[in-house]
């Protein structure tokens, strides 16, 4: 079976409830044609998860993502949201380790192992984000740095567990900046990450893991980036907030 291709949205902390309703209605006003291996995942804010699950419940290949979950199962953690709560709503995915969470909420590779574990234990598919800052790329240390993020957060998993993970490579210098990695830069990193996975788990496992690209993907550049052999779709911020733009991104899946 061919590898999954995923167009994933990350709405971040945007939109009111009414705006979220309108965006979902606009997105699904017409049937979106998806082939057997193509999927959509919408990362919406916590208060809108139920709404979004309800809107897509009759749509094949369309799932909802939370943008985070806590490391612990339950208890006295005021303000946090557990993987179990998220899964109990019918949510399928959880975005973990986004660079904004690493930067503003000090999420470490170690903490992310716990989030990955609890997400998997609750049947959620983690969309594990990784990526380097500009200074690291300029020092030509990006391959090693991102490889290490995978190693430290994922390599405790068994091969069967790893096969449930989606990876999103998001160079920090390209997120929300309008500056996209070139298709070649994306392919080069994705091929590197697949090799890192293959060295640890074997080629058969590595070839099944979707690796999404994120960083200023929009309707006009999605097709070229997603067309690269090791790029299996995208994680999309700004361009996922407008229905017509995100529909174009979806149409860019190969
Ligand atoms: C993101 O937040 O994951 C992202 C890639 O944002 P943008 O598409 O706006 O760069």
What does this structure look like?
42% of the residues lie in helices and 15% in strands. The chain has 254 residues and is an alpha/beta fold. The chain has one domain (5-251): TIM Barrel (Alpha-Beta Barrel), CATH 3.20.20. The chain has an eight-stranded parallel beta barrel, surrounded by six helices. Helix 1 packs across helix 12 (243-251), helix 5 (109-121) packs across helix 7 (142-154) and helix 11 packs parallel to helix 12 (243-251). It is globular and about 45 Å long.
List descriptors.
alpha/beta; 12 helices; eight-stranded parallel β-barrel; binds phosphoenolpyruvate; 254 residues; 8 strands
Let me know the average pLDDT. Answer: 97
Residues in helices, as a percent range: 40-55%
Unreliable stretches covering 5 or more consecutive residues: none
Q: In terms of structural class, how would the helical and strand content be classed?
A: alpha/beta
**What's the multimeric state?**
single chain
Radius of gyration: 17 Å
Second rung of CATH, namely the architecture: Alpha-Beta Barrel
